[in-house]
Amino acid sequence: DQQVKQNSPSLSVQEGRISILNCDYTNSMFDYFLWYKKYPAEGPTFLISISSIKDKNEDGRFTVFLNKSAKHLSLHIVPSQPGDSAVYFCAASGWRSGGGADGLTFGKGTHLIIQP
Amino acid sequence: DAGVIQSPRHEVTEMGQEVTLRCKPISGHDYLFWYRQTMMRGLELLIYFNNNVPIDDSGMPEDRFSAKMPNASFSTLKIQPSEPRDSAVYFCASSFGGAGANVLTFGAGSRLTVL
Questions:
Q1: Which of B115, B113, B112 is nearest to B7 (CA)?
Q2: Tens digit of each residue's pLDDT (9 = 90 or more) over A28-45
Q3: Minimal CB count within 10 Å: which of A15, A38, A104, B29?
Q4: Residue range B36-68, pLDDT digits in tens
């Protein structure tokens, strides 16, 4: 039972255009959402995050949008660059019922390919 | 800081053998996480520790898997006996203050192949 879903295994975008990666979640108790980027033979690295009390967070070329009513978030990259080619993971976290932070729940990832 | 260090980077073993994966978290981080990545299931959380104490091991697939954190600078994930379906990349990650608003820093992973 996937609580975080990335329905597009891959996405191809031309250099300079906008890349939009989508993510859906089912657990309404999630209160923090993150995007990680992964290159081959490396571990995932943090890219950008958003709290559930916000609907947008921007960091340079990267913007994350959150639609809580739809349980949907998206990552926009503009303009896309060749170095953005990587696997992007959507992740979510909440709090344990007994107190304390929960672990991150990840989607399966979307392989973004930026074409010259 | 050298980041999260995992060893070995690659391990090839035969079915039935014991496998031990190792992790050194970032100094000062109080949370440590073990994840497994497969094509079918993506990144799955196996277990995580807070101040060396296991908090949630509900993601551990079965009794063949065990994890320990004897001190703040070292953790192991052991599979005994190993099976071909355990073939995956295993990641260790650490953070200060757990997940949520706090960022997890991942190691480079240990790629396990069980023949």
A1: B112
A2: 889 899 999 999 999 999
A3: A15
A4: 999 888 899 999 999 999 998 988 988 999 999
The residue of chain A nearest to residue B107, with distances taken between CA atoms, is: A43
User: How far does the CA of residue A5 sit from the closest CA of chain B (Å)?
Assistant: 10
Phi, then psi, of A69 in degrees rounded to 5: -65, -35
Q: Which of B4, B32, B37 is the mutation pick for testing A, counting most A CBs within 10 A?
A: B37
Q: Tell me, what DSSP letter sits at residue B64?
A: T
Q: Under an 8 A CB cutoff, do B108 and A42 touch? A: yes
Q: Which residues have C-beta within 8 Å of that of residue A53, sequence separation ≥ 6? A: none
Rounded to whole angstroms, the Cα distance separating A103 from B104 reads 10
> A91 and A34 in contact (C-beta within 8 Å)?
yes
Q: Which residue of B has its CA nearest to A2?
A: B41
Residue where the block lists tokens 């303009």: A79
Determine the Cα–Cα distance for residues A35 and A31; give it in Å rounded to an integer: 14
In chain B, how long is the greatest CA-to-CA distance? 40
Determine the distance in angstroms separating the CA of A3 from the nearest CA of chain B, rounded to an integer: 11
